[in-house]
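hi! just following up on the protien thing from before. the input was this:
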Amino acid sequence: MNSRGIYIGIDIGTSKVCAIAAEPDHEDVLKVVGLSSSPSTGLRRGTIVDIEATANAIRTALDAIELSAGIKADNVTVGIAGEHIFSLNATGVIGIADLSKRGGEHELKITQEDVDRVIESAKAVGLPNGRRIIHVIPQQYTVDDETGLRNPVGMTGRRLEAQVHLVTSATASTKNIITAVKQAGCQVKDFVLEPIASGQSVLTEEEKQVGVGLIDIGAGTTDAIVMSKFGVEHTVSLPFGGNQVTTDIAGILRITEEQADELKLKYGHCFTEDTEVDKVFDVKGVGGRQDRNINESEFSMYIEARMDETLRMVRANLEENGMLKHLRSGLVFTGGGSKIPGIIPLARRVFDMPIRLGNPIGFVDATEMIDSPEYATATGLIAYAAKFQSEETSRYDSGTLKRATKKFTEFFKNNF
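and the predicted 3d structure came back as:
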């Protein structure tokens, strides 16, 4: 815990590092008291490639919120994503009668200890060398022939089965984040998969019960999570995002990526049908070359082509993993890439289902800045921290990656 009981989250992205600070008010509603972003040059597709540059970006963002909130940052909750993330569903089974000393059949009631053991059984999957489990998310339990249970404690049975969602990361990538945060003067309190954090911030309980998907379009990665009434069904981090749009524009117009990004933010649109041919803007030539004019409709075609491809690749992943059936309430879009005008009609065309943008909900915002999909992950990190963390020492350091699995299990059971 930091000074004044303030929670701090860090969203380490490919294009920027976002730091956020919040404290609970007298009604335990989180009040955002600090928010800052700094340019990030030390990551590629969500993975650190320059620890020093990443540490400097983190420190710059933290300096700003420390100044605005009047605090000292010690422990931080960090979002994790990138192409090194791999997730899978697993099943664990234990026999209650065989392993208990509780006597006859009438006494074979399932305890929390049994739940912990079956979760451990589900975790016993063969992972390649250099990978670690960072989240164990219970989906549902089965006691004998009774399926679809959320909490089997107290039930009677001889056989307990757990279905869980496992999120794994490359150990080296995780340690690099820990090192960068430590060089910035803080300790990593917890890691949270970024789409899970975003879902905590922007999804409603009704959507989770009906079934919903969240797609977070960042600069270097596009992350997705699918949820049903049983919890997290699927997570994925794909190695492409808004930077690809910028690169396309720069290549087609023969300009720098800095110019391309500026034009994208100022004139960008990803649904050509909603643009106008008679709206024209200037494109400055590089190296003294002649300027040129381009209309909004033509410009949007470059963006639409790449965004359409990105969304279709996400759809293909969801379809391949049998996830489309869970999206009964539709999809929610977050991340900086979702701010491009036209994303909603384009996504409706690709997915043929209800679409909305995900702005953070349930916060008091003293900064008047967070009401935007690009802050879904950052606000989700502090929402997670407030519900889960207590005043304990950091559970991560540069030498170990120990995880309190039982507490994570409780968090996901209660919040997803």
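The first strand starts at residue 7 and ends at 12.
The two ends are 24 Å apart (CA to CA).
cheers
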